[in-house]
Write a structure and sequence with these properties.
The strands form 2 sheets. The chain has a 5-stranded antiparallel beta sheet with strand order 1-2-5-6-9, with helices on one face. The protein folds into 2 domains: 1-53 and 228-262, no CATH class; 56-227, Bactericidal permeability-increasing protein, domain 1, CATH 3.15.10.30. A hairpin with an 8-residue loop joins strand 7 and strand 8. Helix 1 (2-16) packs antiparallel against helix 2 (28-44) and helix 5 (231-248) runs antiparallel to helix 6 (253-260). By secondary structure, the protein is α+β, with helices and mostly antiparallel strands. It is elongated and about 60 Å long. The protein contains 6 helices and 9 strands.
């Protein structure tokens, strides 16, 4: 729920700068302000709507996998992920494909992720014999490179007519697992196996990642573009965002006046 609300606010923010045609691009200051504001929201949340998502906490999650890469039953407890709000914007652009009535938004982001978690497992990882145990898992990444492309119908206002999206993700990770039986050698072996599997998956098997990620991404964005802020909260949210933009960066003047005129 948190994530859905936060991403919904992303669309609210973009729609307020009136990106409808490529010759009506927001200024560099407006784009900088938009992403500065998103970083603030990731860390602090939004009153009445959602709490912060950096750090992102998952209290309990269970996985039953039949994949050749990771097979068995897994329980994740007290997962904490940090780094989402420290993203760097490599580029942000829009373009029109007039003959198809498409407004295309492209965004390149880079960020580090740190994940810590407790786990319990009974299964198999890669080509290692059956394993079990419980302990801690720590994963750190070099900068995650995220290239996001979203297509909208240019005949609709405020990004309400979503067509499709695609994301390319590349990253190098390091995984450290403790607590596997029968001894620390098994934990070290599985740490190396998981590191190799994750890095190979995200850097050399784009079709596998795409087959999993793209349907989820498209379904999520499609649903989010149809969400409306409840009428009873619309004025409160608009006022809050106005003052948020005016206070969390000196570059929010243009955005703030645009919101104030709505």
């Amino acid at each position: 729920m948190k994530q859905s609300i936060i991403i919904t606010i992303f669309f609210v923010i973009i729609s307020k700068v009136q990106i409808t045609k490529c010759d009506e691009l927001p200024s560099e200051n407006e784009v900088d302000g938009m992403f500065t504001c998103l970083r603030y929201i990731f860390k602090n949340g939004l009153p009445l709507l959602a709490g912060p998502i950096d750090p992102l906490n998952v209290e309990h999650y269970e996985i039953d996998s039949e994949s050749n890469l990771v097979f068995g039953h897994y329980e994740i407890n007290q997962l904490i992920m940090t780094g989402l709000s420290d993203f760097i914007v490599g580029s942000f652009s829009t373009s029109n494909i007039d003959d198809e009535h498409i407004l295309r938004i492209k965004c390149k982001l880079a960020f580090h992720l740190n994940i810590t978690s407790n786990y319990r497992l009974d299964g198999k990882v890669g080509n290692v014999a059956s394993i079990n145990g419980d302990g801690n898992l720590v994963m750190k990444t070099s900068p995650v490179q995220l290239d996001l492309t979203m297509d909208f119908d240019s005949r609709c206002e405020n990004l309400k007519c979503f067509k499709k999206a695609h994301a390319d993700i590349h990253m190098e990770s390091s995984v450290n697992v403790t607590g596997l039986k029968p001894n620390a050698r098994m934990s070290s072996l599985i740490s190396r196996q998981l590191t190799a599997i994750i890095n190979d998956l995200f850097n050399h098997n784009a079709e596998i990642v795409d087959a999993f990620l793209d349907p989820l991404l498209n379904e999520l964005i499609e649903s989010l573009t149809k969400i409306e802020i409840p009428s009873g909260l619309e004025g409160v949210v608009k006022i809050y965002l106005y003052f948020l933009w005016m206070s969390c960066s000196k570059q929010f003047d243009a955005l703030g006046h645009a919101i104030g005129k709505q």
